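Sat 14:20. Reprocessing the chain from the morning session after the first attempt stalled halfway. Input below, unchanged.
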Amino acid sequence: MKKFLLTAWIPVMFMLSHTSAQDQLENPGFEAWDDVLIGASDTIREPVDWSSLKTSDDESLSPLAPVVCERSADAHSGNYSVQLTNVMTLLVANGTATNGRIHPNLITSLAYMYTDTADGRWNTPFTSRPDSITGWYKYSPQPSDTLEVQVILHKGYGKQPDNNYLNNWIAQAHFRSGINTGNQWHRFSTPFIYYNDQIPEYVLIILNSGNGFYPVAGSIAWFDDLNMVYGSGTATVKDSEEAPEFVYVEGNQTMVIRSCQPGRYTMAGIMDITGRVVWKEYITSDRIDISRAGLKKGLYLIILTGRNAHHTEKVLLN
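Finished this time. Tokens:
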């Protein structure tokens, strides 16, 4: 949960924010924690500048929600990490920590995480364009489960999953792993995919110990030492100065790629609105059969990558 600083510190923070051109995350090592009063007498602990199910926007559900986010003394560095656990209640509650706020719903497809631009407790201003995000994790998954790290750079209102405000998205980074790491910390690094050349206003980060809408009870993940990386030259944006190229789907079965440079792209992928990669394949011609992806109606993001090229295209399957 957000911790508000004393007024005397505001000029100092203002000066610091203007001396650094590259933004970093708030409390990325999970060293600072708050005791938060939930309901009349229930006190829980959350990392400063982060929130969980217990501080969702439905205050009637907060006292009933399970504790899925806890402080752990098992840290990659420093004293603490954040521990997320999938807990069985009426359904499986995904272990989640976010720098935004959770909107819960017993119908899981209606639940989401979001940046509340009107309330500083639930948003993180961010105006840089990093190449990637890195961090450290440990994972003890149940069979078929995977942890997830989702980061969205956006302007205005932002949420995840989202099919109404995608035009606000500037970039997304997504990492998933089902590796049982045992007692060893593993480093992850995942690049941002930029959809345009605009400057973001906020960053929305979501850490999950379970797989999207299908978490498995008992999976536990630890996260520590998140870091935005700049200047590596990996940041990519949809081509805008090349000759026209386009991607479309014929009858939901065939993806056709047109490009001024044959062989410009080597890999194609399709991502759904939750940020999950539902299909990927090497490109060997300009016409690719995607029938094996089993895509249903809805909005998808098609991603083409090559050694020195990147292209993204939103596609609505009717």
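Helices lie at 10-19.
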